[in-house]
Amino acid sequence: MTHHNFSRALVVATVLALAALGVSSAQAQDAGGTDRWSRHFTLSGTLAGPTGFFGAELEYAPLPQIGINVGAGLLSSDVQASTMLRFRYVFADGTALGVGLGSSFGTYVDSENGRNYDFTNDTFWKRHWAIRVWGNAELAVEHRSAGRFYWRIGVGVETPFDGLSSTATCQVIRTECGESTVRVYPYAQLALGAVL
Predict the structure, then answer these.
(1) How far is residue 48's CA from residue 163's CA, in Å, rounded to a whole number?
(2) DSSP string spanning 83-116?
(3) Model pTM?
(4) Other Cβ atoms closer than 10 A to 48
(5) Does domain 3-195 have CATH number 2.115.10.20?
(6) How far apart are CA 154 and CA 98, in angstroms?
(7) CA nearest to 91, candidates 18, 20, 25, 21
(8) b/e map of 76-105 (b: 16 or more CB within 10 Å)?
């Protein structure tokens, strides 16, 4: 799946999830929305974001307003891991607006044709990191239903911390290894899960 097709699929999935979740949220409203955030653990699957194309994460929330996430997933065929500290403002009916700051890391490939692009004959160069560390920041809307269903939709940016990453190795076919021109990458993420 190309990056463009993946982006389209993510947008369609997000719109469909929002429509379905809006209906279920309207049906599951109750009076003590903040009480839904009193449980400490949430387990969810993720689509895109710091955990890669597909992943899973566990959150521990010592307070309703604070969450500590750890996650792992796949970016192409490589494993990514992530950590994030979330701060949230909880509204009535279990909905919250949150800000997250964290890092992610894993094997990473950058090439003339884009991030994690396969090294084929039409690629002039490829740079490979055994471990590349990223800083992540995001803004999200989260919801915990009365039935313990959890969802989060967020947008964020990530930037590489090459001073903390392993040394990149370069492979070339016909030219010298190029440099990435983009240093800040936007992303969107969808998480669906359960409050434990």
Answers:
(1) 25
(2) EEEEEEEE-GGGEEEEEEEEEEEEEEEEETTEET
(3) 0.74
(4) 23
(5) no
(6) 9
(7) 25
(8) eebebbbbbebebebeebbbbebebebbbb
Which amino acid, one-letter code, is at 97? L
* Both structure tokens of 177: 């290894």
Residue ranges of the domains in the chain?
3-195
Type of residue at 92? A
Residue with tokens 């839904």: 36
- pLDDT per residue of the chain (196 residues) written in tens, 0 to 9: 444 444 455 445 554 444 444 434 433 344 444 578 999 999 999 999 999 899 999 999 999 999 999 999 998 778 899 999 999 999 877 999 999 999 999 988 776 655 554 545 555 667 778 888 999 999 999 999 988 999 999 999 999 887 787 777 877 665 666 666 567 889 999 999 999 9
- Residues paired with 168 in a beta bridge: none
